[in-house]
Predict the structure.
Amino acid sequence: MDYNGGRTADTIVQWISKRTGPSSVELACEDVEKKAADNKLNFVHTGCQECDHFKAFMEASKDPSVSELYNFFHIKD
């Protein structure tokens, strides 16, 4: 995948971290607002992590063309 992001050290590290780290980050409910990016839509899955909805959510979060546009977070409670 071509890199079309920013040219600062921070933006490059964020891009690499997004591709090598988890595709969705588990957060506490009160932390979602702090982590949500202003320049992207943020998808948040709440609830059961064994259901088909969560599996579909995680599959979408692993797609590079989708994760480039959106942030993915999940909350257990």
User: Anything to note?
Assistant: DSSP finds four helices and three strands in the chain. Residues 2 and 64 are 11 Å apart (CA to CA). Helices lie at 9-20, 32-35, 52-62, 64-67.
